């Protein structure tokens, strides 16, 4: 724990957080736990693009950090970790980000790129099928 960040928070960052923007979205929804947000409102609050917010919100929901609900015209998200342990870890992360912002930023960017990039590149790999080619 040389960075002053608990191993649990470091592990959480490694498993769930791929960018500062994603962290900012998570912490925004955590601070406003009772409120439901759509991508446009989060984009305005964070100062980012709506397309990026759709991706960030969907990613956080798929990791069990947010719940999503379809409204008549939109998808609404609310902070709702699936376990109390996750909730405590995100609370610790929020505190660490407030007190040791640079350490958290360094941890996020020091890790290898997410496997999604490898999966994306493999989707375009050309392979021979049944003797063709």
What would the average pLDDT be, to the nearest integer?
Answer: 87
Uncertain segments are none
**Proportion of β residues?**
5-15%
CATH topology: Arc Repressor Mutant, subunit A
Helix and strand composition category: mainly alpha
Quickly name the level 1 CATH class: Mainly Alpha
**Cα-atom radius of gyration:** 17 Å
Spatial sequence of strands, sheet with the most strands: 1-2
Shape: globular
CATH architecture term: Orthogonal Bundle
The CA-CA distance between the termini, in Å, is 53 Å
CATH homologous superfamily - what is it? Answer: Winged helix-like DNA-binding domain superfamily/Winged helix DNA-binding domain
Major beta sheet summary: 2 strands, antiparallel
Care to count the β-strands?
A: 2
How many domains make up the 3D coordinates? Answer: 1
Distinct helical segment count: 7
Helix content: 55-70%
H-E order: HHHHEEHHH
InterPro entries: WH-like_DNA-bd_sf, WH_DNA-bd_sf
Protein name: HTH marR-type domain-containing protein
Organism: Sorangium cellulosum
Outline the structure in words.
It is a single chain. The chain is mainly alpha-helical. The chain has a single domain, classed as Winged helix-like DNA-binding domain superfamily/Winged helix DNA-binding domain (Arc Repressor Mutant, subunit A, Orthogonal Bundle), CATH 1.10.10. The protein contains seven helices and two strands, in the order ααααββααα. A two-stranded antiparallel ribbon has the order 1-2. The radius of gyration is 17 Å and the shape is globular. The N and C termini lie far apart (53 Å). 21% of the residues are buried. The model has no long low-confidence stretch (mean pLDDT 87).
